[in-house]
Amino acid sequence: MALLDIEGLSVRFKTSSGLFAAVEGVDINVDRGEVWSIVGESGSGKSVSMLATMGLLPWTAQVTADKMAFDGQDLQQLSSRQRRRIVGGEMSMIFQEPMSSLNPCFTVGTQIDEMIKQHLGGSRKERHERALDLLAQVGIPDPARRIKAYPHQMSGGMSQRVMIAMAISCNPRLLIADEPTTALDVTIQAQILELLLRLQEDTGMALILITHDMGVVAETAKHVVVQYAGRQVEKQDVKSLFANPRHPYTEALLSALPERAGDQDRLPTIPGVVPGQHDRPSGCLFNPRCRYATEHCREVEPVPAPDDPARTLCHYPLEDGVSPSPAAAGVARDNPQSSPHREVRP
Amino acid sequence: MFKFFLIKLAQLVPTFIGVTIVAFAFIRLLPGDPILLMAGERGISAERYAQLESQMGFDRSLVVQYLDFLKGLLHGDLGNSLVTHAPVMDEFMSRFPATLELSLFALAFAVIIGLPAGVLAAVKRGKTLDHTIMGVSLTGYSMPIFWWGLLLIMLFSSTLGWTPVSGRISYMYFIEPVTGFMTIDSLIAGDWGAFLSALHYLILPSIVLGTIPLAVIARQTRSSMLEVLGEDYVRTARAKGLSNFRVIMVHTLRNALISVVTVIGLQVGLLLAGAILTETIFSWPGIGKWMIDAISRRDYPSVQGGLVLIAFIVMIVNLLVDLAYGVINPRIRH
Amino acid sequence: MSTISTPAAPGSFRYQLASFWSDFSASRGALVGLIFIVFILLVALFAPWVAPHDPAMQDRAALLVPPVWHAEGSWNYILGTDAVGRDILSRLIFGARYSLSISAMVVVISMGVGIFLGLLAGYFRGWIETVITRVMDVVLAFPSLLLALGLVAILSPGLTSAMIAIALVQLPYFVRLTRAAVIGEKNREYVIASRLSGAGHLRLMFNTLLPNCMAPLIVQATLSFSTAILDIAALGFLGMGVQPPTPEWGAMLANAREFMGSAYWAVTFPGLIILLTVLMINLMGDGLRDALDPKMKRS
Ligand SMILES: Nc1ncnc2c1ncn2[C@@H]1O[C@H](COP(=O)(O)OP(=O)(O)O)[C@@H](O)[C@H]1O
Ligand code: SF4
Ligand SMILES: [Mg+2]
Fold it and tell me: Which UniProt keywords apply (chain B) (predicted)?
């Protein structure tokens, strides 16, 4: 039985101009101790789908799913009290903006203590010891002093370490990290990723790492979900994803990697942006940016082929880097350099 | 923190000097001869005129007069009332506790009702309860309180006979003033009946004086709660699996209070302005009524002294609010 | 950059207006407020035709007649009469003229002077700013009504002095807002571009900076308008504002006060109309704020 088992997750927001489907048809099934990654550009619905899992979306959100279970318990059926026992205790989450994710009015110690008290209990002294341990564990120097610090007295990297300490304080079985390094200095980013992976290995918890960076995916995850404009466009384990991307969006993300761009002067970026609420195209959501798009793509929404394990959301899934799309031949001729170099492997 | 206090204190000095200049200029700006004006219609003898002139220092240069005024002020000497001939300072001080007591009760009323109402409206945003609370608040905010007082008197005092019409305590009790707070003094005297009577007399005036602050506090609480509810750290609090109650009362309200406290502090000026009207309606023997009487009796030294002292109080309270702001906001405290 | 702070090209001004109107009218309260204000303005304007009686006419045969829904009431005096037999409804209708016009003058004066001082302070900074802000701090140190009372005492009670006093009390809010807005806008590209193209101080202040700082000022103006109505009435009630027998709402209340026990209508209606007017202006102000201030839109 999977630890986290989600099928057909959809999230719609009530907005002044009607319902907006921010996430639709996302499946993810994480087993104990696995490392997963959800990847996609900003606006792909990565955060929203995981916030929905945690039950943290604002009241304007309507969450539906064919299945949404944690450790066999149906999250949709649980009372809010039962759900709160899981959230924070067995399944916890850290966020993209560490500086604003800590309450400015309370010390680091108080905020960690509150979490331990909620889920583990114990005497004040025991909780204090545990908080000190946790701070040391996440690599915060001089925990005895830092525990009395207020968030505004700490750097972004330090804050994220505190958030991590807090998130693992109750020995969760699943940690969701929503772009934990995006807001940090480049030098700190690697340290935080390393810390997360080390903690994952030490504790055996499962980890879902949200990122927009395929480089991070290569270094961390075993399984990857690729999301675009709220849809899950493909799901594979990391090796085959890098070797054989099935969706043109995945291919484009991969060819934006510096290693793969080869000797080109500029990194190939995907032209255009992720469509938001008001500029969703008809047919395949990726068609305005897809180099294989055909008239068919612009008219008909693709569905995954039933026999496709990657569940690729495309009319013309790539086979060994080659698109069967009638539009593909033209592309290759126009722009011979843009076909991905495929030497780099995770 | 102490440095923060000193900076705030230093910033007050120019304002304080400005206030003294305004009060000083007040008597000199009166059209016509201030002494004749003060004397009123009955006129004044030449001797008394000369006496008053030197008493008020009108025969010397403006700068000397101002410095004298300032010197007197620093010694707590604001001259004498033209009506009672008692020192203005004493007159003020004997009435100030009545106003303070009323204002504190009004503020307590406003906070005790306004704060939870604002929190509730924010939590139930968009629902009927929210609309109702905000509608009532806006009505309270728009209230002409002198009319509101009359209306409540007509209803609760005249028609229903539940509350007294005016004064601070029933004539059946005489309480020796110690602190000047009727509620405290009656307790000191050990007179339980007097204490209840004093509370009874406080109900309507406190409601009337507290109405606008209540509305302001409810509105501010709601809007800062809504702002804080959208903050990342509130999401973190939810992600910790805390109860809804704890998320709202601890993580949201604690931060929302920072701006609410500021607004509560700003109500002091409003309370003192409102006290003028409330005290007039309820014949409440405080400084508001005293100022009105002084103005209508042309007791200019009293008016002048009252202006300085009230402005002074407002400034001190604003300073205290700044301090409270520092205390509850760790970003300033450290 | 928000639509409001973008300098309006002739074509887009229309668009801005339309988008403002759609935001404003989205709020039912704001619309109700606007309709009421327009209604009462019309009533005030056409008072001599609308009012059933001369507001000063004293009907000796009809002292303290109750409103029409009482058994003793009559259609002749719908809201009843006061202690000297004057028709309350007519006095309220004529009273609207005083309240609204004085308050409008208050807003015009304090907004005009406030914008001027605020522009000076924000544009030139330095000692000019220091002096102006210090003086405004002093004004704010006094409770508004008290300062107004003090001023009226100097100027002698009456319509003009009440107006000046209340305008002064409102001044600091306009100065502060303008100053803050000007400081915020001063270094934006369009201002610098305008300066580089040789615009003078005055032109920069009034033609370039001011139009882009208007949104918060308009919101403040509605707030000041309602506050002014309340303060005028309060002064009238205390006998320091518009003097009887002028049918000013506050003064009417003061007159009726002694008949509180016997003639509730003489007290109730003047206060009710003050409350309604102020409430409706504030409703409209809330709508304006939501429509004009993009920051506030969400809540
Ligand atoms: N509270 C909300 N109300 C309406 N739309 C939202 C809300 N939160 C997110 N969205 C929209 O949902 C989409 C997905 O957002 P998000 O999950 O944050 O993307 P990602 O994390 O992949 O960058 C975006 O278009 C965003 O604008
Ligand atoms: S369906 Fe068509 S447009 Fe969409 S990704 Fe596949 S090829 Fe591209
Ligand atoms: Mg995100």
Answer: Cell membrane, Membrane, Transmembrane, Transmembrane helix, Transport
Helices (H), chain C: 10-25, 28-45, 47-50, 88-124, 126-141, 144-155, 159-185, 189-196, 201-203, 214-237, 249-256, 264-292
Cβ–ligand 1 distance for A42 under 6 Å, the answer: yes
Strands A206-211 and A35-39: parallel
- For B99, the enclosing helix (H) or strand (E) is helix B88-123
Instruction: Tell me how many domains chain A contains.
Output: 1
Please tell me the distance from the alpha carbon of residue A18 to that of residue A12, in angstroms, as a whole number. 10
3-state helix, strand, coil in chain B (%, to 5): 80, 0, 20
Mean pLDDT of C242-271: 86
- C257 interaction partners in chain B (CB closer than 8 Å): 150
The H-or-E segment that residue B79 falls in is: none
Q: Which helix (H) or strand (E) holds A8?
A: strand A4-15
pLDDT at C96: 92
- Judge whether B148 lies within some domain: yes
Assigned domain for A250 exists: yes
Q: Is A276 in the pocket of ligand 1 (CB under 6 A)?
A: yes
DSSP string for residues in A66-108: SEEEETTEETTTS-HHHHHHHBTTTEEEE-S-HHHHS-TTS-H
Q: Residue A166: which H helix or E strand, with range?
A: helix A156-167
Tell me, rounded to whole angstroms, the distance of Cα B175 from its chain centroid.
24
In a domain, A281, yes or no: yes
Cα–chain center distance at B309: 12
Measured between CB atoms, does C239 come within 8 Å of chain B? yes
Establish if A252 belongs to a structural domain. Answer: yes
Residue B197 sits at the vertex; the CA angle it makes with B194 and B200, to the nearest 5 degrees, is 155
CATH number at residue B111: 1.10.3720.10
- List the Cα angle B277/C102/C287 in 5-degree steps: 85
pLDDT of residue B38: 65
- Helix (H, G, I), strand (E, B), or coil: what is residue A178? strand
Smallest CA-to-CA distance from C105 within C175, C160, C180 is with C160
Which residue from B264, B235, B271 is spatially nearest to B252, judged by alpha carbons?
B235
Residue B317 inside a domain? The answer is yes
**Ordered DSSP codes for A128-145:** HHHHHHHHHHTT-SSHHH
Residues of chain B with pLDDT under 50: none
- Does residue A233 belong to any structural domain of this protein? no
Residue A228 banded pLDDT, cuts 50, 70, 90: very high
Provide the sign of the torsion angle of the four alpha carbons A125, A131, A137, A139, taken in this order: negative
- pLDDT for res A258: 77
Task: Confirm whether B259 is domain-assigned.
Answer: yes
| Helix, coil or strand: residue B43 | coil
DSSP bridge pairs for B87: B80
Look at residue B5 and tell me if it is in a domain.
Answer: no
Q: Strands A174-178 and A35-39, how do they pair?
A: unpaired
Q: What residues 119-138 of chain C have any CB closer than 8 A to a CB of chain B? A: 134-135, 137-138
List the structure tokens of C69.
């829904």
Q: Phi/psi of residue A84, each to 5°?
A: -65, -25
How confident is the model over B272-320, as pLDDT tens digits?
889 999 999 999 999 999 999 988 888 888 988 999 999 999 888 888 8
Burial A216-254 (b: 16+ CB within 10 A, else e): bbbbbbebbbbbbbbbbbbbbebeebbebbbbbbbbbbb
Nearest CA in chain C to B28: C154
Overall domain count for chain B: 1
Looking from the CA of C263 toward its CB, the CA atoms found within 13 Å total 26
Range of the domain at A270: 244-338
Exposure on the CB side of residue A35, measured as CA atoms within 13 A: 19
Q: What pTM value is reported for the model? A: 0.86
- Could you tell me the two tokens for A18? 């009607």
Which of A84, A87, A101 is nearest residue B233 as measured by Cβ atoms?
Answer: A101
Nearest to B260 by CA among B109, B110, B102, B129: B110
* Residue B217 domain boundaries: 88-333
